[in-house]
Amino acid sequence: MEHRIDRIKKQLHAQSYKLTPQREATVRVLLEHEADHLSAEDIYLLVKEKAPEIGLATVYRTLELLSELKIVDKINFGDGVSRYDLRKEGAEHFHHHLVCIECGSVEEIMEDLLGDVEKIIESQWGFQVQDHRLTFHGLCKVCQTATVKST
Ligand SMILES: [Zn+2]
Ligand SMILES: [Zn+2]
């Protein structure tokens, strides 16, 4: 955890930003809940437990800054809520998501499945791809079994 905080601190410094205590509290919550895809409000409530003096606006600004610097990715799973997801260390692309339409669970795929698709886009459309988002909506394994049982 500490080395990741350190790394984020360096990423901020490289762009002339400081890791203020408020920013650090927000980053720690993101690291502790890495698998959770939290909304800004969720993050705010968790940050507040550690730093009660922090305001929602500060947390919002920190999240915006972190997304600008590509430390976090902002993502929307189609429910109108923006969620924040830490970019995995050393990842060149944003990981893919499998979202269950039944229970809302979110699985992550770290492997980049779109390398070939990007090549096609670059050669056929002359478009220089820098990143992509890929979210699959469907039924997770647990919900598939539940559906079979109830029919
Ligand atoms: Zn994710
Ligand atoms: Zn499910």
UniProtKB/TrEMBL annotation:
<feature type="binding site">
    <location>
        <position position="100"/>
    </location>
    <ligand>
        <name>Zn(2+)</name>
    </ligand>
</feature>
<feature type="binding site">
    <location>
        <position position="140"/>
    </location>
    <ligand>
        <name>Zn(2+)</name>
    </ligand>
</feature>
<dbReference type="GO" id="GO:0045892">
    <property type="term" value="P:negative regulation of DNA-templated transcription"/>
</dbReference>
<keyword id="KW-0408">Iron</keyword>
<feature type="binding site">
    <location>
        <position position="132"/>
    </location>
    <ligand>
        <name>Fe cation</name>
    </ligand>
</feature>
<protein>
    <submittedName>
        <fullName>Ferric uptake regulation protein</fullName>
    </submittedName>
</protein>
<dbReference type="InterPro" id="IPR043135">
    <property type="entry name" value="Fur_C"/>
</dbReference>
<dbReference type="GO" id="GO:0003700">
    <property type="term" value="F:DNA-binding transcription factor activity"/>
</dbReference>
<feature type="binding site">
    <location>
        <position position="143"/>
    </location>
    <ligand>
        <name>Zn(2+)</name>
    </ligand>
</feature>
<keyword id="KW-0805">Transcription regulation</keyword>
<keyword id="KW-0238">DNA-binding</keyword>
<feature type="binding site">
    <location>
        <position position="103"/>
    </location>
    <ligand>
        <name>Zn(2+)</name>
    </ligand>
</feature>
<keyword id="KW-0862">Zinc</keyword>
<keyword id="KW-0479">Metal-binding</keyword>
<dbReference type="GO" id="GO:0008270">
    <property type="term" value="F:zinc ion binding"/>
</dbReference>
<keyword id="KW-0678">Repressor</keyword>
<dbReference type="GO" id="GO:1900376">
    <property type="term" value="P:regulation of secondary metabolite biosynthetic process"/>
</dbReference>
<dbReference type="InterPro" id="IPR036390">
    <property type="entry name" value="WH_DNA-bd_sf"/>
</dbReference>
<dbReference type="GO" id="GO:0000976">
    <property type="term" value="F:transcription cis-regulatory region binding"/>
</dbReference>
<dbReference type="InterPro" id="IPR036388">
    <property type="entry name" value="WH-like_DNA-bd_sf"/>
</dbReference>
<keyword id="KW-0804">Transcription</keyword>
<dbReference type="InterPro" id="IPR002481">
    <property type="entry name" value="FUR"/>
</dbReference>
<comment type="similarity">
    <text>Belongs to the Fur family.</text>
</comment>
<dbReference type="Pfam" id="PF01475">
    <property type="entry name" value="FUR"/>
</dbReference>
